[in-house]
Amino acid sequence: MDKRERDQPRVVLGVSGGIAAYKACELLRRLTESGHDVRVVPTAASLHFIGEATWSALSGNPAGTEVWESVHEVPHVRIGQGADLVVVAPATADLLAKAAHGLADDLLTNTLLTARCPVVFAPAMHTEMWENPATRENVATLRRRGAIVIEPAVGRLTGVDTGKGRFPDPVEIFELCRRILARGPEARPGDLAGRHVVVSAGGTREPLDPVRYLGNRSSGRQGYALARTAAARGARVTLVAAHTELPDPAGVDVVHIGTAGQLREAVLKAAADADAVVMAAAVADFRPAVYATGKIKKKDGEEPEPITLVRNPDILAEISADRAHSGQLVVGFAAETDEVLANGRAKLARKGCDLLVVNEVGEHKTFGAAENEAVILAADGTETPVPFGPKEVLADKVWDLVSARFGEARS
């Protein structure tokens, strides 16, 4: 094996026996095309859905189910030992139970026991199986041990059934895996395990009439990056999403809203048991005092009637002042166009949050872009600059600071 091959991140893709096994082919394609060395380890049951030859052809590596194959290479030990990431997709209720109880009756379960790298499970099963107390306990056990168990999606299942248990979008699973690998071996993903975090994202819209609204340029990309990276680090994530065209992140509970009032209601509800609340949404400061039930018409020769605005609730200040519990951390965002740091420091003092992410915005800055730069101000007076780069990098820095403060609270 040459140096280029050794430098490729090594991913084990475990596939258990569910109908969603065919969707793992898309995940495998994205992993291989992005430069990862992927070894597929299917269970015997999964081969009823996708054959061994398919996995070998798509990955370029052998795919086997038994510990007795190629015994001289000790595959039941070596595969897990050499992996940078193990992702099981789909993970059935049976596979989750075996992993939680340390059973090792095939190559995949042996691999899970020998892996010392991050492990991700992407469950897919019927709603009744996902909600069964035995499955919930197994999931909780795996999460306590540092594994990332993605929340399944809600949607069409097999047959005519619909509910929670659908295999998450393979593209979103790939993005989560990519973020875990990007953080490197020195930053294991479980530092937010057992934590519930709430993130708001996108831009609210305040209706003027049935066809018009007051809004802003927010794309929701930064908030979605915060949600994805928190999930990649083991947190249970509630994303309160205003208007955005982005797909729901894998493993995240998403609450879609429209107005500032709806965002306030959803955030306060989700924050009741949250360890941290990150208000990344661009919330409208004002709304029309009167909503026109019919479309506002223009009249020839007449100027339009002035639109009177009233203030919306200050959600960040409200959450900061009235926290659900004493250890809850609150992070705000400040989008400024001038005197960025001065205005940010004043806003931090005024809002009363623990951290405030301050960035300069404009027509061609931040909004809608994949990159961002900011300074994270803390209530203790410290300042953490984050240079221009992907929004995921800024998101990880925010969670680094939040995680450190969780640690301080325990000590």
UniProtKB/TrEMBL annotation:
Q: Where does CTP bind?
A: 285, 295, 313-316, 333, 347, 351
Domain of life here? Bacteria
Q: Region (Phosphopantothenoylcysteine decarboxylase): which ranges? A: 1-196
Listed under GO cellular component are: phosphopantothenoylcysteine decarboxylase complex
DNA/pantothenate metabolism flavoprotein C-terminal domain: which residues?
A: 192-403
User: Which cofactors does this gene product need?
Assistant: Mg(2+); FMN
Q: GO MF terms on file?
A: FMN binding; metal ion binding; phosphopantothenate--cysteine ligase activity; phosphopantothenoylcysteine decarboxylase activity
Flavoprotein domain: which residues?
10-175
Q: Does the keyword Lipid biosynthesis apply?
A: no
Q: Which InterPro entries match?
A: CoaB-like_sf, CoaBC, DNA/pantothenate-metab_flavo_C, Flavin_trans-like, Flavoprotein
**Alphabetized UniProt keyword annotations:** Decarboxylase, Flavoprotein, FMN, Ligase, Lyase, Magnesium, Metal-binding, Multifunctional enzyme
Q: Please share the entry's free-text remark on the cofactor.
A: Binds 1 FMN per subunit.
Q: Which family does it belong to?
A: In the N-terminal section; belongs to the HFCD (homo-oligomeric flavin containing Cys decarboxylase) superfamily.
What is the annotated role of this protein in its UniProt record?
Catalyzes two steps in the biosynthesis of coenzyme A. In the first step cysteine is conjugated to 4'-phosphopantothenate to form 4-phosphopantothenoylcysteine, in the latter compound is decarboxylated to form 4'-phosphopantotheine. Catalyzes two sequential steps in the biosynthesis of coenzyme A. In the first step cysteine is conjugated to 4'-phosphopantothenate to form 4-phosphopantothenoylcysteine. In the second step the latter compound is decarboxylated to form 4'-phosphopantotheine.
NCBIfam families annotated for this entry?
coaBC_dfp
Tell me the protein's name. Coenzyme A biosynthesis bifunctional protein CoaBC
Q: Which organism does this sequence originate in?
A: Streptomyces kasugaensis
Taxon lineage:
Bacteria, Bacillati, Actinomycetota, Actinomycetes, Kitasatosporales
